[in-house]
Structure formats: C-alpha cells, structure tokens
Amino acid sequence: xxxxxxxxxxxxxxxxxxxxxxxxxxxxxxxxxxxxxxxxxxxxxxxxxxxxxxxxxxxxxxxxxxxxxxxxxxxxxxxxxxxxxxxxxxxxxxxxxxxxxxxxxxxxxxxxxxxxxxxxxxxxxxxxxxxxxxxxxxxxxxxxxxxxxxxxxxxxxxxxxxxxxxxxxxxxxxxxxxxxxxxxxxxxxxxxxxxxxxxxxxxxxxxxxxxxxxxxxxxxxxxxxxxxxxxxxxxxxxxxxxxxxxxxxxxxxxxxxxxxxxxxxxxxxxxxxxxxxxxxxxxxxxxxxxxxxxxxxxxxxxxxxxxxxxxxxxxxxxxxxxxxxxxxxxxxxxxxxxxxxxxxxxxxxxxxxxxxxxxxxxxxxxxxxxxxxxxxxxxxxxxxxxxxxxxxxxxxxxxxxxxxxxxxxxxxxxxxxxxxxxxxxxxxxxxxxxxxxxxxxxxxxxxxxxxxxxxxxxxxxxxxxxxxxxx
Length: 471
Known about the structure:
Layout: H1 10-31, H2 38-48, E1 56-59, H3 76-87, E2 93-98, E3 106-112, H4 118-127, E4 136-140, H5 149-158, E5 164-168, E6 189-191, H6 199-209, E7 217-219, H7 227-237, E8 245-247, H8 255-265, E9 268-269, H9 272-311, H10 321-341, H11 362-365, H12 369-374, E10 379-381, E11 384-387, E12 395-397, H13 405-420, E13 432-434, H14 445-453, H15 457-470
Parallel strand pairs: 1-2, 3-4, 4-5, 5-6, 6-7, 7-8, 8-12, 12-13
Antiparallel strand pairs: 2-3, 9-11, 10-11
Helix pairs in contact: 1-4, 2-4, 6-7, 7-8, 8-13, 9-10, 13-14
C-alpha cells in the first residue's frame, strides 16, 4: 500500500499490468473449455482476457515453386492479389499448418514478424495443449524476452507431441536460451538461428547439453559464437549422446574452436572432478550389488533351513557349515566387487585387460545421462582415465567460419580415427562435415582426403538398405 501522491516507477506499473493480464487470462481459461479449434478458442480466450487487436488465425499457404514455362502476363487484379498474399504474412496473424482438411488436425503453428505480448502467450499456452496433433511451433522475430521463455519451455510438457521449437530472429539482452535445454526437456529439434548468441550464452548452452537426453538437432547458425563459445559447446558434447546434428554455420569460429570440437570426436581424458565422481558411482554401484546379493543369499538360506527343520527329526539340528560357507562366499563377492570398482586407480599391466570396464547396473542405467556416461567402459593411459569419444553426432556444419588448414587437420585426424576404430553397434560416427566458405584452399590435400572419407548420402542409403535386407 502506498501513500496518496506517491509516484510509482514505470517498471513496477508495467509489471502489475502484466500480472493482472495474466490473472484475467487464467480466470477466462478456467471458465472456458478449449475445443481443439484454434480459430474458435484463441479469439474467445483473448476476449475473456480483455485483449484488443486480436490477430487472426489463418491457414498457411502451401509453398509455391517456379513454373518450368514462363506464364503469360496476368491481369491487374491478379497482380494486386498476389502482392497482398505476399505481404499478408507480415501482418499480425497466427498461421497454422494441418495434416489434412480437418480443422482439428493442426500440426504446426507459425507467428511471424509481430511482437508477442505476454498476455497473448498466456492465451496460446491455454489453447495449444488442446491441439492433439501439434508437433512444431515457429516464432520468427516476435520480440521474445527472458520473461517469456519459461512459458515456452513448459509447452512441450503440456503438448504431448510437440518436439520442434524454432525461435529465430529473437535476440535477448541476457543469456537465457539454455533454459530450454534442461535435463527434463522433451524437445527433439531446436532452432536458435540469428539470435545474436555470444560466447557467454553458448557456454551456458553447452552446460545444458551435458545433461540433456532428448535433443536430436540444434541450429546455432548466424550468431556471434567465437572459439570460446565453440569450446563451451564442445565441453557439453563430451557427455552428450543424444544430439545427432549440430549447425554452427555463419559464426566467428576459427582453428581453436574447430580443434576443440575435433577433440570431442575422439577419446578424451576425464577431469579430476569427473574421476572422483566416477569412483564414487562405481563404489555405490558395487555396494548396491553386494547388498542385493546378501539379501538374496539370506533369503535362500532361511528358506532351505526351514525346509530342513521341517523334514528333520525334533532332536536333530540343521548343519551349521552350510551358513558358514554362504557367509564366506558373500565376503569373497564383496571383496571382488570392491576390488573391481577400485581398479581404475591402478596402472594396467601388459597382459591384463584395461581396467574400468565395469557394466552398468539396472539401478544406474536409468539415471541421468551424465551418470551413465561416467560409467562407460574406460581405459587408462599415463595415469588418466580415457572415455570413448562422441560417436552419436552424425552431422556437423561449420560453413562460413574462419577455419584454416590447421583446424581442418584436427577434424580430419578425428574423422580418420573414428573410421579406424571399431564403432559400437548402432553408432557410425560423423557422416557429414560441412566446411564450405572457410579459409581452406580448394586444392588442399587434406580437404580432398576429407571428401573421400565422407561417403555420399546415396551410398549411405544403399548400405542401410543392404543391412536391412540382410537382417
């Protein structure tokens, strides 16, 4: 409560107006049940929330292709109608794309070139979950702010089939796009092109990638990411095994950033903190298996003892040696598991197999991706624990950056190593690497070698068809 005549800052007034608008939208949503028809639900909820100037909901026109033959000169009315159709998407409206003619079969929603207010986004957050077939939301130059991102991040959880989110042309003053990539995110495709993303935002995106398990493709093209930001993204790719396609085209990445990305594709050493965490997880896993084994052993021994006591005479006792042997076996099992979990601390001998090849227990296998990867099969080399490189990434786009032959050499070495080593079942390593528009001469022998290693897509399809036929 404030005194009469006391002035209130503009920011506080604006915040109160936004909150009141959000409350109105929520009250209207509670009273109105969405029908799954966006053309009907959106205007109704906007009217109940007191929003004026409501954008129209229209059907997105299909893409047009140039005709093979030059058409005759159209009449003036048709020319004017064509101009109107050309510039109509720039007017405030919501365009939808349908699976078929049924108005309830909306699969994609497009907002292009007009400022999205918080109250309108609140209404959309109530309408979109009612669209059962919604798969993609595209917001192009809608003036996003940090305050709108939490509502967008919550949309995939409320829309069961929503897997694609495109937020192109929406620069933010402060880094916040990483909030879309949390460990609980269900997004599969995210496009953040032309958002003026710098090194600080790229570093935060890399940290989110390390704990993300759903994202399949990420586009960071046409931003301001330099070698520092590329290093942050590479750090996140070390412990990420879900991302298949990464585009960093049209940025400011040089040889240092390309080298950091190449290092992730090959085996890498764990940091001290990661080694400590790995040993802790291995010990917890071994102790968990030992407890499970002891419980099963005790249960079996009690069962056998009860059977023996019921079958034996009253004046006879069950032999005590049986329980003693079980105890000795349990102690040996615990010692073996503890020794196995601590093996990475020792240097491997010439005849022994590399240590750290522990298998995941069922309890750990369902944990976060970071935990699963820290428990992968590892090798020791010169006192360091080495994990296998990232073989999940199939497509890397570094076109139109500042990579020279030095960075190309690092990428080529990583690609050659991937193809030399035996890949795991279901993983093939990098299949497509785009370096167009960099500072690499077309006559470079390393570039020619790179093109030899990267098979054309047609040959890859033939190989997959042969494998499917053989299976």
